[in-house]
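Field reference: sequence -> structure
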Amino acid sequence: MPASDTALSPLSPVAFIGGGNMARSLIGGLVARGGDAEAIRVAEPVEVLREALQRDFGVPCYANAAEAATGASVWLLAVKPQVMRSVCAALAPLAQSQRPLVISIAAGITARQLDLWLGGDQAVVRAMPNTPALLGAGITGLYANAATAEPQRARAAALLDAVGPTVWIAEEAQMDAVTAVSGSGPAYVFLLAQAMQAAGVAQGLTPEAARALVNQTLLGAATMLTHSDEPAEVLRARVTSPGGTTQAAIETFETGGFHALVEAAIAAATRRGRELSAAND
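Structure field:
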């Protein structure tokens, strides 16, 4: 059965609470894969965003969250973390009567907090997609609470599969590491690209040439990583000839503490995710 069939049917609509960039990407992915646009409802207070979603995908849109959520078997919460509590509180009576599958893509908001704010005994899945989802090339970490049944887990995965593969996480505490590695990860790659381009210019390349060389190199390397069964360290060793130019660069990275710096950066991002969760208690 195609993922879109598992995720959507006219008898089991999905309500997106929030119609921003990530929600738009998921909606676009579902529709592109054959999902029924009429089975997707969107609650979005900003009129221009509602109009764009209706125009581009043919999905029904509402200004009020309860209107979109009424009768929907899945709620995908795609609002900013700082307003999640008030959004859930407003939807709590409806959540208690409908018992939907609740999927949240908000960073730093735990399944326990969502369950509490929605009145308790809710099936909750936390999802952490990353920004390449906007191009259908993302990856999403998923965690389900104990109230989530296996068919609900399958439905959550099918929805998020619309923008890339999914990975289930066994312990919710690991979601902060997911955020640090993949949620924030594209920014690390952009930072590396920025640094490589600047270094290329410093060595005499034009900005245009440096950008083209770096961007395609990163794309090619990422493609090799995803299409090969070999781990990153093996691929890296394979292109590092003894005494060559690559070895000179790699040794410079390692002398500068590259591995330790990356570890410290991801630890800092993980720690910040935990702090954000604590701040919402």
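Note: Residues 258-279 form the longest helix (22 residues).
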